[in-house]
């Protein structure tokens, strides 16, 4: 195993507290460390477009939905796994930039629907190309079998943690 910082930390705990099993840090610690590194690697295209990660997520969720590229705040919340309050803040910022609009829901005047504007569509189509190319670049050091194994293991861990 590499002599990385996580391995060093585990070794220190094994030395100081031999009664404990610090081996979960070899996975959890690396996932946490990787999340920080990935965030820094994925952020630049969004920052160049003056967007936060969450605002990109709103645009992407609307674009993935297909024509008419519109969802309620509740639907956006479910698609992005965040609270409706977080959705509202993100949508408000995107409205101010002319990237999405908010209008009355046709079947219920109390409800509101958020939709991509033409400017939002243009931006998300450009950004998703950059984003996916960036992700492919990040993963280029993994073989196809490594990627398949990692996908399977991460899905299994996600289910286990969520249970």
Q: Overview of this structure, please?
A:
Helix 2 (24-48) crosses helix 6, helix 3 crosses helix 6 and helix 4 crosses helix 5. The two termini are 30 Å apart. This protein has a 3-stranded antiparallel beta sheet with strand order 1-3-2. Helices cover 69% and strands 11% of the residues. The chain has helices at residues 5-16, 24-48, 53-65, 73-80, 84-96, 118-139, 144-162, and strands at 70-72, 100-105, 108-116. The chain is mainly alpha-helical and 163 residues long. The protein is built from 7 helices and 3 strands, in the order αααβααββαα.
Main sheet, how many strands, which sense, barrel?
3 strands, antiparallel
Q: In one word, what is the shape?
A: elongated
Beta-strand level of the residues, as a percent range?
A: 5-15%
Number of strands: 3
Widest β-sheet, arrangement of strands = 1-3-2
Low-confidence stretches: none
Distance between the termini: 30 Å
* Structural class by sheet pairing and helices: mainly alpha
Computed Rg = 20 Å
The number of helical runs is 7
Give, in order, the helices and strands.
HHHEHHEEHH
- What level of helicity do the residues show? 55-70%
Query: Averaged pLDDT, please?
Result: 92
